[in-house]
Amino acid sequence: MRGITGEELLERYIGGERDFSGIDLSGIWLDHEILSEIDLRTANLFQGYFQEAELENAKLSRTNLKQSILCGAYLTNTDLRGADLTCADLEGADLIYADLRGANLTGANLKETITITINTNFKGANLRDVNWEDMLLCDTIMPDGSIESDSIRVITAEELLNRYAMGERRFPSIILHRADLRNCDLRDIRLNHFLASEEPKYRAFLVNVNLSGAILENSILSYVNFNRSNLSEVNFAGADLCSVTFRYANLRGVKFGYAFMEWANFTGADLTGASDGVYWLTDYRNTIMPDGEFLAEHYFFGD
To answer: Which of 42, 86, 111, 180 is the most buried (most CB within 10 A)?
Structure first.
């Protein structure tokens, strides 16, 4: 099928079109664009530029992505079965739940790539000469069908609590998978780049937990339930807090540092003195706002 420009594709996508399968888009530049659920099956994306593009739930099976740039791209739950990713750059990409069965990743760069949960599937994929440096593995299905996890960064709730009780406070870049931390006291813990599994079946439970003074910078916490937790003075700078529930939580003096909080629920929460959040598309009722104002009636920031 004939090629189209990036501008034309974006115009049609914004207009509601999703099926661009089989189109020649070689060399296209779509960096930082939102293209969730787009259908690019069998399309030619040779040397395409998709840095930090949002491609969640996209259909990219049997797509030509040779030498494409996908650094920091969001490929959560993306279908990449049989895709050709030869020499593609996926450094820092999010492949949570992605399906890469039978894909060709010969010479691809997967440095610092996140591959979390059993739904990330490399079964039958060609991983010859792949750069795996600092790659996160958690219940990842490998080409031979085996399942691997990072024995250092993937830890259980029991291990975390035991180490904390022994005086340890720094736990950078850990993954809590199926962890129940309800009612725990973890004040002043440092969880930079912490990742809690998003899928409800495997999500970490953090209800009524004491995390006062904790550091959670650049952590992925979307969909986590912080109901009734003490989060005073927590540093959430740069964190993903989308769809997080903060009902009746103590958030006094929290440093949001431009964390992303779309669809977060702050019903009954105390945000006195909180700073620098991206509050778009957030939900409030009986909430004390950062300036001390009390919002008794339901208010959805984004209406």
So the answer is: 86
Q: Is the dihedral of CA 281, 282, 285, 287 positive or negative?
A: negative
pLDDT digits (tens, 9 = 90+) for 179-194: 788 999 999 999 887 7
Q: Is 260 helix (H, G, I), strand (E, B) or coil?
A: strand
Q: Tens digits of per-residue pLDDT, 246-259?
A: 999 999 999 998 88
Q: What does pTM read for this prediction? A: 0.72
pLDDT above 70 as % of the chain:
89
Above 50 in pLDDT, residue 21?
A: yes
What gap in Å lies between CA 63 and CA 43, rounded to an integer?
5
Bridging pattern class, strands 114-116 and 136-138: parallel
Lookup: tokens for 182: 């309800």
Mention every residue, 6+ apart, whose C-beta is less than 8 A from residue 212: 187, 188, 230, 231, 232, 233, 234, 250
Last residue of a domain, one of 130, 150, 170: 150
What is the biggest distance separating any 2 CA atoms in the chain, rounded to whole angstroms?
A: 64
In a shared domain, residues 163 and 300: yes
Is residue 17 domain-shared with residue 165, that is, in the same domain?
no
Left (φ > 0), alpha (ψ -120 to 50) or beta: where does 80 sit?
alpha
Pairing of strands 195-196, 175-176: parallel
Residue 265 belongs to what domain range?
A: 151-303
Q: Which residue in this structure is represented by tokens 């099926």?
A: 19
Regarding whether 124 and 181 lie in a shared domain, the answer is no
∠ Cα 59 123 195 (to 5°): 75
Q: Kindly report the backbone phi and psi dihedral angles of residue 72, in degrees, each rounded to the nearest multiple of 5, phi listed first.
A: 70, 10
Q: Output the CA torsion 35→136→131→97 (10° steps).
A: -40
Query: How many domains, the chain?
Result: 2
Whether residues 159 and 118 share a domain: the answer is no
Mean pLDDT in residue range 90-111: 91
Q: Which of 99, 123, 150 lies at the terminal end of a domain, its last residue?
A: 150
